[in-house]
């Protein structure tokens, strides 16, 4: 399976909550960086905990409208992440509100085809406004 195929498949694995399948694509010494929160997960176990954290906050979380850019040893997945905030989001309480926004995930692969580095980019302010934790100015 190509790097691009694995990255494209990750949305389905996330949506099915197949955590073992999801992290099987990662190298044991991988790192995953949530750029919006400036948080880094190291190793498969922490990557799995990071992904499960989204489901804790949004039990119906889904990745949809995926578009993939194949750069060989690097791939980019643009997708819409959506769900109902029915659990805590870090230190923030659940609001019961819907959130939906675009995400950009970049993955880098080693010569064995395992993810060695992932980066996630999204607009955290938009999410917090949608959830009612922030009020937009103006």
Describe this structure in words.
There is one protein chain. With 138 residues, the chain is an alpha+beta fold. The protein is globular, with a radius of gyration of 15 Å. Strand 3 (62-70) and strand 4 (74-84) form a beta hairpin. The protein has helices spanning 3-16, 19-24, 43-57, 124-131; strands at residues 26-34, 39-42, 62-70, 74-84, 98-109, 115-122. 31% of the residues lie in helices and 38% in strands. It has four helices and six strands, in the order ααββαββββα. Strands 2-1-6-5-4-3 form a six-stranded mixed sheet. 21% of the residues are buried.
Assembly state here? single chain
Number of E strands? 6
Which strand order spans the largest sheet, edge to edge or round the barrel? Answer: 2-1-6-5-4-3
Helix/strand order: HHEEHEEEEH
Distance between the termini: 49 Å
Largest sheet: 6 strands, mixed
Tell me the number of helical segments per DSSP (H or I, 4 or more residues long). 4
Helix content: 25-40%
Shape: globular
Q: Beta-strand percentage?
A: 35-45%
Backbone structural class: alpha+beta
Overall pLDDT score: 96
């Amino acid at each position: 399976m190509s790097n691009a195929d694995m990255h494209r498949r990750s949305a389905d694995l996330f949506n099915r909550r197949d955590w073992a399948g999801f992290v099987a694509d990662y190298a044991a010494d991988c790192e995953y960086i949530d750029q919006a929160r400036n948080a880094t997960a190291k190793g498969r176990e922490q990557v799995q905990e990071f992904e499960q954290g989204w489901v804790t906050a949004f039990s119906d979380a889904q990745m949809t409208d995926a578009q993939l850019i194949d750069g060989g040893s690097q791939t980019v997945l643009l997708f819409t992440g959506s769900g109902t905030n029915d659990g805590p989001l870090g230190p923030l309480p659940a609001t019961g509100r819907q959130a939906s926004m675009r995400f950009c995930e970049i993955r880098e692969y080693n010569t064995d085809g395992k993810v060695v580095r992932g980066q996630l980019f999204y607009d955290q302010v938009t999410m917090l406004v949608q959830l009612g934790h922030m009020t937009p100015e103006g």
